[in-house]
Amino acid sequence: MPKVFANLDRLRPYFKALKIFILENDSTDDTLEQIQIYAKGRSGICARGMRGIDRSVPVRTERLAHLRNGLIGWLRRETGFKLDDLVLVLDCDEVNAEPWDLEDWPGVLNWFLSQKDAAAVFANQRGPYYDLWALRHPQRCPVDVWQHVLELHCREPQLSDLELIEKAFQPWQFSLDPLAAPERVNSAFGGLGFYKMEWLRLNEGAYSGSMSRWIDHPDRGMRLIRWQVAEHVAFHAGLRAAGGSLWIHPGLINWTTAVLPDLRPDPSSWRHLSF
């Protein structure tokens, strides 16, 4: 986390003012202490710890949706923000712990600001693009990859978890050249996204972390399940419904995935997404 905070500090010279809101819940390590250390002596930082959320909202993606909706609600109510402000939403984990190469970021943001209908722009990685779950693109990834795993399991129950992951994820894996043109998407995140405040105010949608669906289970027949989904997709649908466009800018690099041995998730992860 200190490495993520160091990246935020490196952004300060690029903006007239920077206000940082850090939201934490129910951590059991030194996360809260690290946040307090960072906030001490720095201006423009609002940090809040949320206790008991793990118990009241036990499903991970529903919890993420709940917390993100709370943060967006606060932004909409806060009178100190202007419609032409930018809002940077990011995950405070290893995705943003690598020192950001900010050389191309001013050009990215100038492009973003020049596009009147652009509501948000999302990060790319140097190497394979990693956040397929939040991605929706007509060609690159038109499906929910984890739902695809579930559907494959129902059709081909003989496949192992590893075979399911390889079959579901492999067709959609890709890399974006950092020098390539921005790509319009229906949803994305990649651990980091800039949003225009004016579009956040127009968005009548909300983050949503689950859905209900019927599945034809090979052993149990038709059954209704609750299934975790990437919470960003519903929120981004609201931005598009308001008339906004969403983009991945290949030059907005936040992480080097090319050096990682394997980006594939734990093969058994999909078994924990129903509840």
What's the topology here?
Elements: H1 2-11, E1 20-25, H2 31-39, E2 45-50, H3 53-56, H4 60-77, E3 86-90, H5 105-114, E4 118-126, H6 145-155, H7 161-169, E5 183-185, E6 192-196, H8 197-202, E7 210-217, E8 221-228, H9 232-241, E9 245-256
Parallel strand pairs: 1-2, 4-9
Antiparallel strand pairs: 3-6, 4-6, 5-9, 7-8
Description:
This protein is of the alpha/beta class and 275 residues long. The protein has a domain at 85-272. The protein is built from nine helices and nine strands. It has helices spanning 2-11, 31-39, 53-56, 60-77, 105-114, 145-155, 161-169, 197-202, 232-241; strands at 20-25, 45-50, 86-90, 118-126, 183-185, 192-196, 210-217, 221-228, 245-256. Strands 3-6-4-9-5 form a five-stranded mixed beta sheet, sandwiched between helices. Helix 2 (31-39) links the parallel strand 1 and strand 2 (45-50). It is globular and about 60 Å long. The mean pLDDT is 93.
